[in-house]
Amino acid sequence: MSSVQDPGVLFAAERTLLSWNRTRLSLMAFGFVIERFALCLQFVGKDEIKVFQRQTAFSVGVVFIVLGTFLLLYSVIQHRRFLRTPNPGEVPREHPLYTGIRTNVTVGVLGIGLILYPVRGIL
After folding, report:
1. Residue 5 gets which letter from DSSP?
2. Is residue 43 situated within a structural domain?
3. Which domain holds residue 37?
4. What's the number of CA atoms in the CB half-sphere (13 Å) around residue 36?
5. How far is C-alpha 25 from the chain's CA centre?
6. Local structure of residue 95 (DSSP, 8 states)
7. CA 45 and chain centroid, separation
């Protein structure tokens, strides 16, 4: 934390949180696309490789979604730790501190739903 009462440090932390949010959303979307692409492989491939391709694409896709969701929720913990450190003069008056955290928690819950969606179809 800076020793000067600089609100720019807080704003930089929020930008970092939201840029990581964007990255994790991309990971989750990429995983979902890979998982759904496996459906196309079922219609195109030979019978003996269909099952292998479907299971491989499903596993890789779900891993990307789980990774994105885990990192998203982990960033909430990290940002909350950071929010304990600023001095009162470093936080602008009436600045909403927890908007980024609320956004990440919402996307994290949706990510959990995105994990359950393809898994439900396999089970």
Report:
1. -
2. yes
3. 7-122
4. 10
5. 5
6. -
7. 32
Does the residue 20 lie in any domain? yes
Task: For 71-95, write each residue's pLDDT tens digit.
Answer: 888 888 898 898 888 777 777 778 8
d(CA 98, CA 34): 33
Query: If DSSP codes are grouped into helix, strand and coil, which group holds residue 84?
Result: coil
Cα–Cα distance, 105 to 22 (Å, whole number): 13
Q: How far apart are CA 123 and CA 119, in angstroms?
A: 6
Residue with tokens 């020793």: 3
Question: Does 95 reside within a domain?
Answer: yes
Q: What is the total count of domains within the chain? A: 1
Alpha carbon 38 to its chain's center: 22
Distance CA 35, CA 64 (A): 9
Asked if 55 and 25 touch (Cβ cutoff 8 Å), the reply is: no
User: Could you read off the pLDDT of 18-61 as tens digits, one per residue?
Assistant: 888 888 889 988 988 887 877 777 777 666 666 667 778 888 88
Q: Per the domain annotation, does 104 fall within a domain?
A: yes
